Amino acid sequence: MDIVKTSPLYLGKYVQCFYSVLSQGLNDIVHRRLPDGTLDLVFNLGAGVTLSRDEVQFDKMPGVSLTGLYPNRSFLQYNDKVHLVGIVFQPGAAHLFINDSLEHIKASTIDAGDVFGQDIYSLLDQLNTYPSEIAKHRFLEQFLMRYVRSDKDDYHLSHIFNAVRQIHAAEGNLDIGVLHRQHLMSERNFRRKFVECVGMSPKQYAGIIRIKSFSKRYESSRFTYGQVSDHLGYNDQAHFNKDFQKIVGTSPGIYFNQLHPIAENFIHLI
């Protein structure tokens, strides 16, 4: 499976990246995708893809979907040709495009036509006219530029953006309780605005980033769990195992021993 990833030219403040996932002839391949706290707008130009939260009940992914904002595990199943083209919104910025609180679409995959209108499905045919994945990404960036809502009048949004950057810089290992004071907001107002913009609480988001940071470091280095988890502030192995199980749905040993090459690619996509 190949993944083509590009950065936005104009919307870097609001879009983390564009990507294409391509493969030929996959039959009933299932992989577990780690949550990453981001919302994706995904166009399916290939065969059917199904999704599940429990690896038992699988539902067909809409042709154009808003997905990815899961607080814990999800599973993807591919059949035959895979060709997905996706947009990963910056955490805190997606609501500027969909004009709604992200909390409303947490832990779900929804038809993007319900948000952008059914005309968005016409983009599937237009995307197929572009000869390269990079050209497809540039076309989608131009599409998004028509939808982005100005954030100039949103006093709190810059503080949420900065809080998200702090969480990432610390790889999720920080005292969430001090963030609201650093950004001159009450704890209740900070949490409310964070949930509205990011789709989940600051504590939950930091937990996801911490486990995702561990997975990236461990998968790349293959150091021991203890070496990597110590770096991320886990002094208690049982505490780390509990957090990993809660978000990923299985122990780190089972997850990495059963890691599918497709899932390995997704660890480093975002």
The parts where pLDDT drops under 50 for at least 5 residues are none
Number of helices: 12
The dominant shape is globular
Protein structure class? alpha+beta
Write the H/E string, N to C: EEEEEEEHEHHHHHHHHHHH
Question: Strand-residue fraction?
Answer: 15-25%
Any idea of the CATH class of the domain at 2-144? Mainly Beta
Round the Cα radius of gyration to an integer and report it.
Answer: 18 Å
Output the keywords.
single chain; 270 residues; alpha+beta; Jelly Rolls; 8-stranded antiparallel sheet
Summarize the structure.
This protein has twelve helices and eight strands.
Please give a structural write-up.
The protein is an alpha+beta fold. It has a domain of 143 residues: Jelly Rolls (Sandwich), CATH 2.60.120. The chain is 40% helix and 21% strand. Strands 1, 2, 3, 4, 5, 6, 7 and 8 form an 8-stranded antiparallel β-sheet that branches. A hairpin with a 6-residue loop joins strand 4 and strand 5. The longest helix is centred in the last third of the chain and has 20 residues. The model has no long low-confidence stretch (mean pLDDT 90).
